[in-house]
Amino acid sequence: MNADDILVRVRRLDQLLRGLEREIPYVEKAGDPVHVEYREYLTALRKGLVGVENALETSAKETQPIMR
Q1: What is the pTM of this model?
Q2: Ramachandran class of 28: left when φ > 0, alpha when ψ lies in -120 to 50, beta otherwise
Q3: Taking the CB of the first residue and of the last residue of the chain, which one, N or C, has fewer CB atoms within 10 A?
């Protein structure tokens, strides 16, 4: 995997991150916190957000030695 491949990955992850960041407030506003499905969906979105953030961090660290 070269630097270009990693940069493409970072762009895709960034798009996914922005989508999750938009979805979470929408669900919080529109959803019903009493329903189990709502809470599970919101929890999954938040976990996904953390996972994508971690993947972006790892990818950024991965590009540093390649870019030098």
Answers
A1: 0.78
A2: alpha
A3: C
